[in-house]
């Protein structure tokens, strides 16, 4: 499997659907075959060569996209191995339903990034829009495995219906963080909007910012209860794992925590962890 | 059972014989706690009554103490090795012992102590079934690809890794220390056990690492599958048809025999432990009352692992 380099010719007039463009799909293809692979452009199908200058890459198993791909959706869709690097922004559904491999986005991603992700790693240097790590509309389970790291900020309903895996936001997160969460771990380095953990059944949401205050409304919310019980073993395991990602998470193993348990209107086994 | 002794080390006769060991299944668990005292309490309880698979279901022992820096949760802990004749029996014993002795012990947590197994290889449940003690309040947590169970208990929560790898292992390595009297036999055995405890991947499951009731296979009583090793009982010299203590050099001086049984994760681990144990005992020598070192075997019928004493000591055999 060799690598490929795609340099964007110019921004397309309509949105482009890049589903199917994964390292595995390129394993045995020649340059001519790659150039003729067709992707959706609005209602039509276009060969890749009309959108990109295609060349052999230097990194084995890596698809490298150069340019602003803000109008390119479903980058890394259902990817199950290899490496995709986007040297710019990505559109909606980036890393959606991904099962393995690594997706690196040097810019920001649109809506529904990592939705229903089941494995692998996604690293976004910029921001992500609403519904990252959540469900596809109408689906029951959101992110269900793997690791998602956002170095910027996240939009609203981050981790909606999340079931498994780890999702980290170095910056701020919008309202309804971890809403209807079933399990898994969310960690936020900055501030979170209102209604964090709304309807969560299980799972952990860690607020790692300096002197992290409980999210708005938690102190008075009837559906979360403060808990003073020491959980040193769990916290040692989790904090060491989160600390690997640096930034606001680096010092977590040495910080004290306070927990609020809930949402009692759901299953009550979730926890909001404030790092003091 | 043994050929005439031909090797002499520091005045101690080393029999030209071998210890016969057999395959077992093993796992290592790490028990951590708020401090070393409570980790030790849990480990001692979990390895209690685990001397011999003849009647205990498993053989287990404390391998070593673990500093906070090397434990999974940054707390002090104890490494425990557990051996059994089958993976199924090992899983049963593990669940009972961890459930009754670790889950119950204040502040403890339990982790797998062997590297993650390859897909399809054996694992035994650790927290997987114990979680039900949580009566529905237990929570699963996957961290760095490993699943842990958090079971609410009265001092907070008991954390247990989901399962632990099970590997093939070697049980029944042994040394017989033949000494002038009880004091000398105990001194030699204690020195040998102390040296062997510094070896990784092995445990000596009997009390203090030493067993005085060495056994042979079978009995004149139909309901017993093992009975006293009469060939090495000083009290039976002249009474039994064959005694290992009846002839040869220094035979008349031997008044007490102690055995050390060694279980290890690999054949090399058991061999290395036997070698350092022998060297520690040999250093005591006849001046300290140790006269001879032998080993237990059943003519090669018990198991495929044969630890020849002369080879372990680096002697080709034959030269004193």
Task: Write up this protein.
The complex is a heterodimer of chains A (276) and B (320). With 276 residues, chain A is mostly beta strands. Chain A is built from three helices and 17 strands. Chain A has helices spanning 31-36, 48-51, 232-243, and strands at 4-8, 16-17, 38-41, 44-47, 52-56, 62-66, 72-73, 80-87, 100-105, 121-124, 144-150, 164-169, 185-188, 204-207, 224-227, 257-262, 270-275. In chain A, the strands form two sheets. In chain A, strands 5-1-6-8-9-10-11-12-13-14-17-16-15 form a 13-stranded mixed sheet. In chain A, strands 4-3-2-7 form a four-stranded mixed sheet. Chain A is elongated, with a radius of gyration of 20 Å. Chain A starts with a strand and ends with a strand. The relative contact order of chain A is 0.09. The mean pLDDT of chain A is 94. Chain B has 320 residues and is α+β, with helices and mostly antiparallel strands. Chain B contains five helices and 18 strands. In chain B, the strands form three sheets. In chain B, strands 1, 2, 3, 4, 5, 6, 8, 9, 10, 12, 13, 16, 17 and 18 form a 14-stranded mixed sheet that branches. A two-stranded antiparallel ribbon of chain B has the order 7-11. The longest helix of chain B has 18 residues, at 267-284. The radius of gyration of chain B is 21 Å and the shape is elongated. Classes of the chains: A mainly beta (276), B alpha+beta (320). The A-B interface holds A 164-165, 183-185, 202, 204, 229-234, 236-238, 240-241, 253, 269 and B 32, 34, 72-75, 109, 137, 139-144, 148, 150, 156-157, 159.
Question: What would the keywords be for this entry?
Answer:
heterodimer, A: 276 residues, mainly beta, 13-stranded mixed beta sheet, four-stranded mixed beta sheet, elongated, B: 320 residues, alpha+beta, 14-stranded mixed beta sheet, 35% strand, disordered C terminus
Q: What is the first-to-last residue Cα distance of chain A?
A: 48 Å
Radius of gyration computed on alpha carbons of chain A: 20 Å
SSE topology string of chain B: EEEHEEHEEEEEEEHEEEEHEEH
* Helical stretch tally of chain B: 5
Distance N to C terminus of chain B: 21 Å
Q: H/E element string of chain A?
A: EEHEEHEEEEEEEEEEEHEE
Low-pLDDT windows of residues of chain B: 316-320
Percentage of residues assigned to helices of chain A: under 10%
Strand sequence of the main sheet of chain A, in spatial order? Answer: 5-1-6-8-9-10-11-12-13-14-17-16-15
Shape of chain A: elongated
Classification by helices and strands of chain A: mainly beta
Oligomer: heterodimer
Structural class of chain B: alpha+beta
Please outline the major beta sheet of chain A: 13 strands, mixed
Number of separate strands of chain A: 17
């Amino acid at each position: 499997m060799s690598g490929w380099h795609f340099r964007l010719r110019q921004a397309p007039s309509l949105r482009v659907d890049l589903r199917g463009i994964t390292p595995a799909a390129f394993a045995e293809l020649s340059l001519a075959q790659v150039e003729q692979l067709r992707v959706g452009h609005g209602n039509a199908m276009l060969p890749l060569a009309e959108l990109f200058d295609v060349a052999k890459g230097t990194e084995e198993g890596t698809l490298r996209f150069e340019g602003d791909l803000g109008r390119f959706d479903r980058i890394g869709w259902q990817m199950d191995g290899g490496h995709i690097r986007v040297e710019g922004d990505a559109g909606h559904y980036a890393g959606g339903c991904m099962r393995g491999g690594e997706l690196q986005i040097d810019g920001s991603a649109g809506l529904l990034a990592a939705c229903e992700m089941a494995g692998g790693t996604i690293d976004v240097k910029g921001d992500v829009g609403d519904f990252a790590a959540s469900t596809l509309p109408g689906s029951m389970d959101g992110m269900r495995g793997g690791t998602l790291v956002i170095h910027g900020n996240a939009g609203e309903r981050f981790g909606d219906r999340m079931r498994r895996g780890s999702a980290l936001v170095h910056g701020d997160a919008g309202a309804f963080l971890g809403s209807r969460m079933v399990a898994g771990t969310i960690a936020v380095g900055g501030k979170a909007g209102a209604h964090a953990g709304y309807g969560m059944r299980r799972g952990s949401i860690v607020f790692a910012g300096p002197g992290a205050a409980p999210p708005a409304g938690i102190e008075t919310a009837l559906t979360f209860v403060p808990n003073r019980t020491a959980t040193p073993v769990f916290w040692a395991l989790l904090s060491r794992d989160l600390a690997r990602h640096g930034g606001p998470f680096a010092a977590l193993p040495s910080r004290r925590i306070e927990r609020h348990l809930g949402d009692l209107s759901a299953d009550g086994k979730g926890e909001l962890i404030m790092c003091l | 059972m043994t050929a005439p002794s031909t090797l002499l080390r520091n005045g101690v006769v080393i029999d030209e014989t071998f210890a016969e060991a057999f395959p077992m299944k093993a796992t290592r668990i790490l028990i951590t706690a708020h401090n070393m005292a409570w980790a030790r309490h849990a480990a001692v309880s979990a390895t209690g009554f685990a001397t011999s698979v003849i009647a205990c279901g498993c053989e287990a022992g404390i391998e070593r103490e673990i500093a906070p820096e090397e434990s999974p949760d940054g707390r002090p802990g104890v490494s425990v090795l557990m051996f059994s004749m089958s993976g199924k029996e090992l899983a049963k014993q593990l669940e009972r012992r961890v459930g009754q002795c670790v889950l119950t012990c204040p502040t403890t947590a339990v982790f797998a102590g062997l590297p993650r197994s390859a897909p399809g290889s054996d694992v035994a449940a650790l927290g997987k079934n114990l979680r039900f003690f949580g009566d529905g309040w237990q929570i699963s947590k996957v961290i760095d690809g490993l699943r842990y169970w958090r079971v609410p208990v009265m001092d907070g929560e008991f954390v247990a890794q989901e399962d632990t790898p099970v590997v093939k292992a070697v049980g029944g390595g042994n040394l017989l220390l033949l000494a002038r009297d009880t004091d000398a036999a105990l001194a030699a055995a204690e020195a040998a056990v102390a040296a062997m405890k510094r070896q990784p991947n092995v445990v000596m499951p009997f009390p203090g690492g030493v067993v005085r009731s060495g056994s042979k296979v079978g009995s004149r009583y139909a309901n017993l599958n093992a009975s006293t090793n009469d060939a090495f009982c000083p009290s039976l010299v002249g009474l039994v048809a064959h005694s290992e203590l009846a002839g040869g050099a220094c035979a008349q001086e031997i008044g007490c025999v102690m055995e050390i049984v060694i279980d290890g994760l690999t054949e090399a681990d058991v061999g290395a432990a036997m070698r350092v144990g022998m060297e520690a005992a040999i250093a005591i020598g006849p001046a300290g009352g140790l006269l001879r070192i032998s080993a237990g075997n059943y003519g090669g019928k018990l198991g495929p692992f044969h630890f020849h004493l002369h080879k372990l000591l680096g002697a080709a055999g034959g030269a004193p």
